[in-house]
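Structure tokens please, single chain.
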Amino acid sequence: MFRIGHMSRKPKTANPIDLPAFQEDHTTVMDRQSERVQPPKMYRVVLLNDDFTPMEFVVMVIQEYFHHDQERATRIMLQVHLEGKGVCGVYTKDVALTKVQQVVDRARESGHPLQCTMEEA
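Here you go.
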């Protein structure tokens, strides 16, 4: 009734040949992850010209919030005045948003309509 041949058979186990091939590319997980990491997008913080905000106030804002010296701040202010807009700096998104809000808040507190925006660099 019983076949002796069936009793002596070993249980079936996974054959290494049946498993997906493991390629040794000699990279670590950290190496592969770092290859996929992209630098954050950068944004320009831009001041827009208006006919009411005093030039001295614009220079002060550029110095205070963007840490430019008097000469650089004056050049940016003149660019805003003559070309309609001027770039104050390039930052990550969170930093750019914060700087835009700080400038707009300061302008409103001082009673000036100065506009500040950000655009992808």
